[in-house]
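are you around this afternoon, could really use another pair of eyes. what follows is a protein written twice so to speak, once as letters and once as structure tokens for the fold. i want to understand how the tokens follow from the sequence so walk me through it. anything you notice is useful, everything is just below.
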Amino acid sequence: MRFEEILDDIGGFSKFQFLLLSILCLPRAILPLHFLLHNFISATPPHHCSLRILDSRNESVWSSGPETLASWLPYQDDGSFSSCRVYSNPQTRNLSQDNRTVICPDGWTYDKSQFSSTTSSEWDLVCNDKQLNQALVTYFFLGVMFGAIIFGQLSDKFGRKYMLLVALIGSTLMGAIAAFSTSYIMFAVSRALSGLSLSGLSIIGIVLGIEWTDMKHRTFASTIMSLSWSVGNMLLALLAYYIRDWRHLMLAVTVPCAVAIICCGWLPESARWLLANGRTEEANKYLVQCATMNRRNQCRTNLDTEVLRKVTLSEVAEKNHTYLDLVRTPQLRKITLCSGLSWFAVSFLYYGISFKISGFGVSIYLTQFIYGAIEIPAKILTFYILDVIGRRNGQAWFLITTGALIGINTAIPLEYSLSRTCIAVVAKGCSEAAFTTAFLYSAELYPTVLRHIKTDGEGDEKIQLKPLSHEDNAALQKN
């Protein structure tokens, strides 16, 4: 008997799975709170050089008249005052003197009408140092990349539930450390480690949910879980609107991680992972719980030690696999290369749009909220549209449409803010559709892992395949 057969007997998509997926939706909703947090905590508010003479008068750069500022700050080509340079000798400035400008010797003054504090205003990451502020999101996603590798392997070795708990604890600690960072380096390191932990949260949550769901409902369950990402996306807009200090906002998005740690107490370990590691008694305990909750009590008698031992032997025999199996045959190499390029394009478009929430003439908080809201119908419609036009055609057209809309938006003048916003929102929906397609398509391109290869007399490759494993599920993660 195979594990999928046991799961079907005890209820592969019933009350037990609904409870499990409901709990796992919380960690999934936490992800966008951190993944897209850079839009708000590292925003660069309007700024000018700090002027000592105004400070001595208890005046503000922002409340001073243009005549006063004109004697201190040079004009830019667009007619606005420079935000990075100041006249070296403004008090005696006239046409006969050398009106040299210098980079703000006394630092910067920031407009606090929208943000009371951000990382850029905290450590003056503007002008010549603005690339340091932009690099913060890069450090975070480097952590995400390494976390996908590290937690994927660790969850195979130590278990899904245990490593999910480790990822949550790591996310909580790193989020708190980032909120209380006293230097740029401390903040950058803590954000990178936070990305590493959150990547584990993303992978393991999806894997644990899928391994408790029967085959015919796995795609649907994954889609339902991904909707919580969109909910978190909208929640981020609300939190950022009411919390304008970056440290307080950092703490606010970290608190749900601590709540999720408590909820982990109700999560079961993956019975499939337990069987694959020979822990038959523990697997039996969770399988009995599943059968009881799903009211399949008549099936509990089939969960005896002998039956599970046979399943254990089968799972152990099928554990020997590596990432090299993805490129072992020409066909798999082709699939891996093409899907890898597709994932790069999809991620590039999605996050490129997600990190562009300004310049549309409307509030950045409203833009962020609409970006999250449009994802929900996009995911639901994509789930049905793909059954009509197919995965490959759907992926191609969603990517082409998204790219075309971005191109159109760049050609529209800035004063047409409503048109630019509408096109951007539609592009965001198409990018989410492309992401959802890649999510589903990968599950079908890699439904199994190569176990054995042999060649017949004519050189044709014949492969023996094994059930869905962690590496397959890891490919399904969203971010």
About this structure: The chain has three domains: 1-37+132-317, 47-111, 322-479. Residues 1-37+132-317 form a domain with the Growth Hormone; Chain: A; fold (CATH 1.20.1250.20). The two ends are 35 Å apart (CA to CA).
